[in-house]
Protein 1
Amino acid sequence: MKQQTLALHAGYEKDSQGTMAVPIYQTTAYEFRDVEHAANLFALKELGNIYTRLNNPTTDVLEKRFATLEAGEAALATASGMAAIFYAIANAAEAGDNIVCASQLYGGTLTQAAHTFKRFGIEARFFDVHDPEQIKTLVDERTKVIFFESLTNPSIDVADIEAIVSIADEYGILTIVDNTVATPILCQPLKHGVDVVVHSASKYTTGQGLAIGGIMVERKMVADKLKDNPRYPQFNEPDESYHGLVYLDTPLPPYTLRARLTLLRDIGAVVAPFNSWLFIQGLETLPIRMPVHSKNAMMVAEFLVSHPKVLKVNYPGLVSDPNHELAMKYFKDGMCSGLLSFEVEDFETAKAIVDRTKIFSLVVNIGDSKSIITHPASTTHQQLSEAEMLACGVKPGLIRLSIGLEDPEDLIADLKQALEG
């Protein structure tokens, strides 16, 4: 089936009431038939609901539907996009290990990788997303993850997914890709060999800035990469915290299974059932919305390129953009989502332009149906050093736009008056 059909139907078997809409199962716990039933569930001899920190029927539909849209095998929903990234990495790495990350990352992800994981004893090493060969100089026997974004935020670079995956596979290392900006409608990294995809569902998935949540999706046959791989003993050896379970000895997708039974269980950053329901509503229109976001962003980018006060525009849909060729390779019909950025003379000029906009809202979010403007150097990337900001593509005069679903002519007029004000 096509994605638009899957977005409306995947993962949902109508309940006994025949409800067309997925019900919200707003409950913390579930009654077991008897002691044996409860014991079988905990021992994985039977599959079913135990406690909403582990699973929930509404969230189950979200996970199945998202996994289907990403062409993956299984998914794990979380309380936020940052939680999804944390679980995806912590599932593979432990104290003494290292991860190799693209320098061009969202500010929060960069901070989590470079500082928070460091306090857990996991070192982050960085490569330029435009030079995958750098990865070979950074990996060693303790490297557990290569992490990057399919479409970077806010530098708007496109990763050469297959080139990075090829290097990772050469060393037997897992690849994890943040696909938030592109969404599975425009790009499906798992089809290009990526092992795990993560999303902030708070962005395009909900589409209206209604809820915080995240999701992690596992590629089909990840088990083959983990099996007998000395880098990942936690999947091949008994887990003492779960009565000696060996994750690769079960028929279930091992990466999401382990994340659910250990990380979700013990850390508890679980998505609320109501938020899962909101994300399901968003998925139903995602295949319709993403082409409109992309079309509007292209029109805005073409306007900005022609304006004398704009020094540079970052949008891979533009033929002149250095990422254009990769965008044509990896993104459906060359659609490049609704995120773009542009540079003006300096910090103060950027601030003045942001303050003068009327339709654009100054918000540190993206993927909303309403257009958003952000000055990364003073907000999302403020905590970084000047060198770190430049490494991830954030200059003092950079302005990020998340183009919404308004009439693009109105958005262009608003930017024109702000630039010339």
Protein 2
Amino acid sequence: MHRDKYILIGGSAGSFRIVTEILGALPKDFPYSIILVLHRLKHIKTGFTEALSSKSLLPVSEPKDKEKIEQSKVYIVPANYHMYIEPDKTFALSTEEPVNHSRPSIDITFSSAAYSLNGKIIGIILSGANKDGAFGLKKIKDNSGITIVQDPEESIVRTMPDAAIKTTKPENILSSQKIVEFIINLK
């Protein structure tokens, strides 16, 4: 029996393509939870989850407040909400003010997960146009998690990967293909 593990992926402008590549590569018996914190238009409430579901053999959903995290599922933070990971492995949704001009904030989800899921996290930062996620990825690293940043040279918008590298000094700076391979080969 594997130990519970959680893969947190944060991204913004330019990250949708790699997210769909990751989801499309995972087998239906993939044993870990995947939590996606993607900046998206706050006023569009439908279509995003459906688009990701069409690429994934794993179930994809927007979690409800206080919903328990289950393995072998993909969760995407609902539009215009912050999402915390609680110590009892549930989600907590919030409409607090934006952080780094964003709601959802990658930093909030990653930082709360670093505290609540100590050492069982793989944090991944993808392409994006602001610095959101850099602080949260560092918290994951500081709490014995594995950190990965998409190679800025390959990113459509490199601001987010550059900030994450500068702040976190991650163990892995990988191309999108290497990120997919890393996730598929997890033990």
Protein 3
Amino acid sequence: MTASLLNAVPYLLALIALGAALGFFGGLFGIGGGIIAIPMLALVFGMDQALAQGTALVMMVPNLLVGWWRYQQRHPVPPGRLLAIATVATVSTAVSAHYAARLDPLLLRAVFAGFLLLLAASLMRRTAARDPVAAGPLDLRWMPFVGVVGGSSMGLLGVGGGLVSTPLFARLFGQHQTTAQSLALALVTPSALVALASYAGAQRVDWMTGLPLAAGGLLTVSAGVALAHRLPEQRMRRLFALMMALTALWLIRLAIDR
């Protein structure tokens, strides 16, 4: 028993360290870190797609809560707008997560790979344009409808709410990068809670792996948020685009090798 405990300690520390790295980048870019954690849990830890998505949500929820709180202190979202965005996103998440947790794992992985391809194509189109904002910003009253896209992505894939909604808030509504990330966190945080509840109800969560990842993320997410607000906005946009590109290319490569 002592030997087993000693062997478990390095594994536990490795999970905490991994969670710390994901928490920092999640805070920096206003996401939960699941876009990296999910394929790692699937390919390195041998989890099926639904189990990997549910387990990653255990780490993402506290990271998102802390990240949203920190961003809200600097870029507060009006309560009415916050409630509207969160409500639309939560309903969309609940519907999509209910079916995602029960889909065939191979089909779900194919959907995940398709999402990555769309993400890469969207990235190439955005980085080719000089101005990240659309020709004319939309009326802010349309903001809650971004929750349909972001919430559906969170429920179906366990990720993507921030990656999808942040550029939409920036391009369509003319928001600064850090403000767009604050709005995205207001959308993604309740969505992640709903998605986690749905995956847990379907027994698609490994709590023993997810909780150490969450503990590590809590140590560093605030530092990531603080750095995000010290960097120039143009550099933030480039870093965000670079992070999306590298992540998408890496995950596509892993999917092909699989």
